[in-house]
Every structure is written in structure tokens, then in C-alpha cells.
Amino acid sequence: MPFVRIDALEAGPDRLDALGRAVHDALVETIGIPADDRFQVLSGHGGGGSTLRYDDYLGVRRDSGIVYVAITMRSGRTPDQKRALYRRIAELAHAYAGTEPRNVFVTVTENESIDWSLGDGVAQYAREPRRSEGPL
User: Fold this and answer.
1) 2 catalytically annotated
2) Segment 99-103 mean pLDDT
């Protein structure tokens, strides 16, 4: 159950939709999330007055095509799965939205099953603790 936030500079609805599809398809392909498990917030930011900032850190030359992808998901993926995910997101962002792979900045934050409520005020992924049958 990943929760994805995508912030893109100079991105209208079509580009944001394409980026959302790219990230979702990459999650399905590389870590096996169900196809109907899509929870995303897509935000476009205007040029001159934008609040998005970037530099050329670690020698990666970024420009106004920058896309920030923040993925929150339950822990348990291997480093190789994460590397495959990052690579596939960059490939699909290029194929679907024309975003240069160098402009795709991805971060993954992991948490535990108890950290999710998917609605109705219930922690659907967490087991209920056993209740004692009474005083000992």
C-alpha cells in the first residue's frame, strides 16, 4: 500500500497524470503491488513563483523539468528491489511524460503495518492485540 506524492515543476494535468501512471506502473512491475492499489497526490508547481528548489548535487544536472517522487510504504523491500524501482520510475517517466531521467528525484520512506489506516478508522494491515480473558 504505497502512498505516493509527486511534485513537478511546470506540470499541467496531462503531465501529472503521465507521471502518476509511470510511478504506479513501476511499483506494480518491480515490487508487485496490486494494480488497484493506487493512492497518489499529484501537484504541479508554476515556474517563477514555484516553491520547488534544486541544485546539481552529486553531479546530476537538473533543470526545470524536475520531478520529486516521495513514496511511503511498508518496510520489507530489498535494496535490489528499490534500485529496480528507481530505475523503472525514471524509464517510465521519460516514456510517458518526456521527463529526463536525470530530473527524477525519488525518495522512499518505510514504516510498519500499524502505521496505516485505509479508511473507517481501522488499521487494516495490523493484527488486533490479544485480549486477556480476565484477571489472573
Assistant:
1) yes
2) 96
Amino acid found at 119? G
C-alpha cell of residue 100: 529526463
DSSP type of residue 121: T
State the alpha helices, DSSP H only, in 60-134.
79-97
Catalytic residue among 2, 13, 34, 135: 2
Q: What would the grid cell of residue 56 be?
A: 546539481
- As a whole number of angstroms, the distance between CA 136 and CA 122 comes to 30
Scanning the structure block, which residue is given the C-alpha cell 530530473?
103
d(CA 65, CA 61): 11
Q: Tell me which residue has cell 518496510.
A: 75
Cα–Cα distance, 19 to 43 (Å, whole number): 11
pTM over 0.70: yes
- Kindly give the pairing relationship between strand 40-45 and strand 3-9: parallel
**What pLDDT, in 10s, does the model give residues 29-55?**
999 999 999 999 999 988 666 677 888
- pLDDT > 70 in the chain, percent: 91
